[in-house]
């Protein structure tokens, strides 16, 4: 698996998205750093940039090819780089989910209007 990972990382125009990895494995880090030797490589990391020495060093490079995603969420225990924040706010929804959301919103709107009419408001 490491050979395939390395092969994919060093391909031209590759992008590596990291979530849930704290840069604690030197073998994996070496492969990531090999990718950074290529001008077309991009690294997107969902982690607090100050988590450890490696992430602090990567952030200090100010390399425009390395993007860190982190920050506070709406609630105190939420962070932008946490799994639920990524899935709920950054990942695109499927067409089925959009249709379901649209139907739900339409039903809620009609229900509110119907309740308003029943109360003599409209």
Task: Give an overview of the whole structure.
This protein is mostly helical and 122 residues long. The protein has two domains: 90 residues, no CATH class; 30 residues. The chain is 48% helix and 11% strand. It has five helices and three strands, in the order αβαβαβαα. It has a three-stranded parallel beta sheet, with no helix packed on it. Helix 3 links the parallel strand 2 and strand 3. Helix 1 runs parallel beside helix 2.
Give average pLDDT, whole number. Answer: 82
Count of helix runs:
5
Low confidence ranges: none
Strand arrangement across the biggest beta sheet: 1-2-3
Count of separate structural domains: 2
**H-E string:** HEHEHEHH
Number of strands: 3
Helix content: 40-55%
Question: Secondary-structure blueprint of this entry?
Answer:
Layout: H1 2-9, E1 15-19, H2 26-35, E2 42-46, H3 53-61, E3 66-69, H4 83-90, H5 95-118
Parallel strand pairs: 1-2, 2-3
């Amino acid at each position: 698996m490491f050979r395939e990972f390395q092969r994919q990382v060093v391909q031209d125009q590759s992008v590596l998205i990291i979530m849930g990895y704290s840069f604690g494995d030197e073998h994996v880090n070496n492969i990531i750093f090999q990718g950074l030797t290529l001008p077309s490589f991009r690294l997107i990391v969902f982690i607090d940039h100050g988590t450890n020495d490696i992430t602090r060093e990567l952030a200090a490079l100010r390399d425009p090819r390395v993007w860190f995603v982190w920050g506070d969420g709406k609630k105190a225990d939420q962070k932008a780089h946490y799994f639920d924040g990524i899935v709920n706010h950054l990942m695109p929804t499927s067409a089925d989910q959009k249709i379901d959301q649209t139907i739900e919103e339409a039903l809620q709107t009609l229900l509110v209007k119907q309740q308003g009419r029943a109360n003599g408001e409209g």
